[in-house]
Specification:
Radius of gyration: 11 Å
Order of helices and strands: EEEEEEE
CATH superfamily: Jelly Rolls
Strand content: over 45%
Strand order of the largest sheet: 1-6-3-4
Largest sheet: 4 strands, antiparallel
CATH topology: Jelly Rolls
CATH architecture: Sandwich
Length: 72
């Protein structure tokens, strides 16, 4: 991933694993979570968030197969 994704939320949890590089997950009303290679974070369902990567980061994203990319 690279750049800023739009703000969105999902009706289910979403797991991000930073495989290479680094990026942050911004969420409303909270400090950003910075992920470096080997670190993971679960965005709880219903939380408005957006991933932001200033440089290209390789990310493994685990979510339900029917999850819409930019949320509900």
């Amino acid at each position: 991933m690279e750049g800023k994704f739009p703000w969105h939320y999902h009706d289910e949890n979403e797991l991000f694993l930073c495989w290479d590089g680094s990026f942050e997950i911004q969420s409303e009303g909270q400090d950003p979570v910075v992920l470096n290679a080997g670190e993971l974070f679960v965005v709880p369902r219903g939380m408005r968030h957006r991933p932001v990567a200033d440089k290209t980061a390789q990310v493994l994203l685990i979510e339900h197969p029917d999850t819409k990319q930019y949320g509900n």
